Amino acid sequence: MNWKKYKALQKKDKRDETYFIVGLDIGNDSSGIAFYNFIDNEPELIDLSGGYGRPTIPTVMQYIAESKEWVYGEYAILNRGMGREVTLSNLVDRLGSSEYIDIDNRPVSVVSLLSMYIKELMSNVKHINPKAEIAGIVASVPSYFSTNARDEFVRAFKNAGYEKELIGLVSDRECIYSYHYRKRSQTGEKTLLIDYGSRGVRGGVYTLESDASTLRSLSSLFDDEIGTRMIEEQVKDLFTNYYKANNPIQARQGLDRNILDQLIAFVYQHKDILFQKAIRNKPAKLYFNFAFPPFQQTVTVEDSDNLVEPFRKQFNKFIRQVLEKNLTENITVIDIDVVLCVGGGFEMVWTKEAIASLFPQGKLQLYKNSKAITAMGAAVAAAQLLEVAEGYPITIEDRHQLPVDIGFRIGDNFIPLAECNSFWWQPHPIKLFIINSPVKNEVPFTILSRSPEGETKTLSDAPLKNLPERPKGTTRLSVQLKFLSDREAMAKIEDCGFGELFPKTGYEQEITVKL
Amino acid sequence: MGTLGLDTERGLFLGIDFGTTNSVVSIYDFKAGEAQTIPIDGANIFPTAIQFEADPDDDAKLTRVFGVQAREAVIIYPQSTILSIKRFLGGDEKLSISVDEKEYNFSPQEIAGEILGYLKQKADEYAQEELNISGEFSGCVITVPANSTDKQKKMTKEAAILAGFDEDSVYLRLEPAASAISYAINETSDKKVLVYDFGGGTFDACVLDIKIEAEGEPTISIISTFGDNDLGGNDVDKIIMDMIYEEFKKLTNEEIDLFDENADDGVSKRQKKVALVRLQQAATQAKERLSQTKSTKIQLAPLIQEPKIVNINMEMSREDFYGHRRINPLGDKPELFEKFAGKNLHDLIGRTLDCVDKCLEAGGLTPADIDEVFTVGGSSSLLLAADAITARFNKEPFKSRISPALSISQGAAHYCNMIMMPTVRGPVVQEKTIHPLGLEIAGRRFLEIVPAGETIPKDGLTIDASEPLTTNFDHVSSMAIVVYENTLPVSLKKDKESQSVNQEGMKRLAGTSLRGIPQGPRGQEKVKVIFHVGQDNMLKVTARSLSATGVVTELSVDELYT
Q1: What ranges in B90-200 are assigned the alpha helix state H?
Q2: Is the pLDDT of residue B561 over 80?
Q3: Distance from C-alpha of B196 to C-alpha of A424, rounded to nearest angstrom
Q4: Who's near A76: CB < 8 A, 6+ residues apart?
Q5: How confident is the model at residue B500 (pLDDT cuts 50, 70, 90)?
């Protein structure tokens, strides 16, 4: 990162309203954009809905084959079923693997797709000020992002017309803490960060070191069973059942694609009704106006509670685990100074109530736009890096993250199973490989670590034993690494078979690795 | 305890943008030093809609549903739902709804009062529960279109009083000025700004002069304004409705008239109402989609089921939408339809630009004098509107740093701050008269009494007519007092002496008679006329017979409409 461009601008009047320092958060579920307001010395969120809805927009883009055009955000959801469209989500998670996606019989790289999305997001700065010039961007990235993913992300910005020199990547947690500590530095403060997102809930306990810019991680966990996406699925099932109950003939014949698309849009527009305070006072009414004949459905607080209950239980359990499973002595509720509640999950009343009941001493930091805190923090980090705002961006030292790649070797090639920076609790992808020599019972298999500098160290060289005998190039195996704790992992190797010629045998072997 | 309730005597004030389609409420947060939008039912934007239901506990009573749920209920319960009430403010038409086959009638201000009352109640709850502020909102600043009539303003004020705000604490302010405050709050240099406010039901153009005072605070003056109270996003929707209705006519061989409830065409009244609402909602959705994509589909399958099934399945391109010229009245009154017949979207946008031109002319300005254009209101996001502005001014429009949908309400909240804390620093709006006001005198001539651009002090502007009126005939005991507003742009105005009330741009605001004048020969009795303009641009005219036994009438301009 080189902030040469802005440094030149910095000599000018800092209040010049045409220079924008931007913070971007392109999450898997939603995206937000903020800029640093020189007048107030505060980050300011750009309302991407124009005030008509949520200030963040869904990270969804859609290609409409008929008119060969792209739509983004909310429209990509509401536009479903209007034509022969391809709807894409989870773009950020797909970075790092050089993936291509088929768009109307044309392979398009994820990097190119993301660059289009970035361009669209950044155009909102121009909406505020058509003369806007971008002086610096900090984009938040998931903490577990690999080097490849980071490189591809920067490339996406370049394709969108933003030079590498303008871009800084800061991890999402560091952005959140840059926002939290933007005007205060409480060294020694112990914070619990709960980031409730679409894929799951991430929780961690951190303490601010005496240098006021380093956070040490004491605990870090993730639960992928209670993300808002899972809740949305439940809401979709509930609404679909309402629809079926009112349209029994269609229900028997099976709902067609058009209705299913309409239901998805309907869920998107109406799901919040189940999680707001108002439903406690009066049952809510849903109007299925897309149906014919249209019908009304009353939803009660009991319906809402029934849906939420399993998530509430799991959420409470998760928070307790975050405190219990830590690197030091047991952390209790009393030890926590502040609980930071970020992510879209905190837009629901039940999550706020659940966390408030766990921390009755009123240590909660709830935000009006909990989904947008990362983008706001990114804007702060950008302003700090450019020395426009006071302080330094927060950096996190986390022993729960792998400092090295862990993988295995085939010939001269290192195949990573878990990448540097990923968390031990994170699911790691399955890798397939073919043994390019005849297999007779036993094959050497080395698991090793590789530092960012490229130095390797053997962690295990236990061979694969009792493999089915096969000719050269017909033994296809899968390997997946699963961490049992932050110190121990297990590699599971399975036979995948080789077409009809050599069907799967059920062979599997587990190798434990000490880190 | 929050810091809002500073002036305990006057209570809390709420800033309200009471829009045709949507409403927004905001407060000024003294602690944060900024206006803050209050979410109603979880969202910043509250659909200006109400639906009535029978009270399950008491048949004689009605319960009310508001906002999103009311807007959505209209498809199933069109006979008991009212949308776009703002369009009825200013008229005398009673609104009729039907619940369980019982008819109920309401005045427009009663309905508006119900909706405002709900906004007040929700804002009270929010202030107490979320902001920890005790008390409730006893006062408000409600914004009105720059070109609204005095009767519209009066009815808006009545609605606010019905909603539970104190009579003395209801202030009306102009929408463009309110949005200008939101915009100007971040300004650091002197500018002339054009506000292009294209809302759901009205269009206003307004030129503002923003000057940064020595203390760094902006002072905002309205130089000129011009608008159209019958042009908004609803009329844009009607172009698409018209396209769908044409398809419907084709499919039914023009045998069914959805707009004639009494036509004997085999479609029940209820089915027609439902079909029309669905038609309207499909049009609105298609408009929104066409702002993002080049084409969209419209599926209303079926639109009606009896006497035969009629399915609408249309592919509509942006080009079709832009080019379509309206054919059907679609329920518009003849005088209104005359305005839109044969017109397409280019014409509608053209009409907004005509208003912009007249607004500039009224201020003696040209497009080159405007430093920035900024857009307000949902309809201003039409691509065609942005293109037209860019072409006219040779610069792209700004959207306000705060959302175009929220800027009016947040500006109203700043006004609240000025009322509650007049000594606190902040943007200042210099209220000025917008158009010349005067009387009709002998020979149908226009006597200008209040010139345009006159600063309105806090307590209002009072101007005596330069000469008293005299009786035109012998032995008359009454005299007509007719008030006119000259809305003609400056360049087209004739000199003051030769202006006639018949000329283009003259708007008759009010009229009454001063009765009980002592009878005498022509010209003997003299009547003094005094105009008083409040900061909300509302006009009160006092006419006083100058003879010893003379009479006084404090004529409200609104008596014209009674």
Answers
A1: 108-129, 150-162, 175-184
A2: no
A3: 55
A4: A58, A60, A61, A62, A87
A5: confident
Shared domain for B409 and B281, answered yes or no, is no
Residue of B nearest to A279 (CA): B41
Q: Residue A4's pLDDT is what?
A: 59
Q: What is the 3-state secondary structure (H, E, C) of B384-415?
A: HHHHHHHHHHCCCCEECCCCCCCHHHHHHHHH
Strand A214-223 with A395-397, pairing: parallel
Chain B residue nearest residue A35, CA to CA:
B401
Do B142 and B194 share a domain, yes or no?
no
In this prediction, residue A133 carries a pLDDT of 85
pLDDT (0 to 100) of residue B120: 96
Look at the block and give the residue holding tokens 């014409």.
B347
CATH of domain A405-514: 2.60.34.10
CB atoms under 10 Å from CB of A24, counted, come to: 24
Tokens of B289: 């989609």
Q: How many domains does chain B have?
A: 3
Structure tokens at B35: 């206006």
Q: Which structural domain, as residue segments, surrounds residue B150? A: 1-186+401-430
On chain B, the residues whose CB falls within 8 A of the CB of A284 are 69
Task: Give the CATH number, domain containing residue B326.
Answer: 3.30.420.40
Residue A200, CA atoms < 13 Å, CB-side half-sphere:
13
Complex ipTM value? 0.77
**Is any Cβ of chain A less than 8 angstroms from the Cβ of B42?**
yes
Cα distance between residue B346 and residue A501, in whole Å: 68
Q: Where are the domains of chain A?
A: 4-185+370-397, 229-306, 405-514
pTM value is 0.81
Mean pLDDT of A145-157: 92
- The per-residue pLDDT for B350 is 96
User: Which of A11-15, A159-163, B243-247, B529-533 is predicted least confidently?
Assistant: A11-15
Are B293 and A79 within 8 A, CB to CB? yes
Cβ within 8 Å, pair A287-B76: yes
**Top-confidence residue, B61 or A317:** A317
pLDDT over 90 (residue A212): no
Q: Is the pLDDT of residue A340 over 50?
A: yes
How close, in Å, is residue A210 to chain B by CA atoms? 30
Q: How many Å apart are CA A110 and CA A153, to the nearest integer?
A: 10
> Which B-chain residues 157-186 have CB contacts (< 8 A) with chain A?
186
Q: Chain B residue closest to A297 (CA)?
A: B73
CB pairs under 8 A between A and B: 103
Judging by beta carbons within 10 Å of its beta carbon (0-12, 13-18, 19+), is residue B360 exposed, middle or buried?
buried
Q: Give the pLDDT confidence score for residue B41 in this predicted structure.
A: 86
Torsion of CA B515, B517, B518, B520, to 10 degrees: -110
Sequence-separated (6 or more) residues with CB below 8 Å from residue A174 = A377, A381, A393, A394, A395, A396
Same domain flag for B339 and B415: no
Which positions in chain A touch B292 (Cβ < 8 Å)? 71, 75, 79
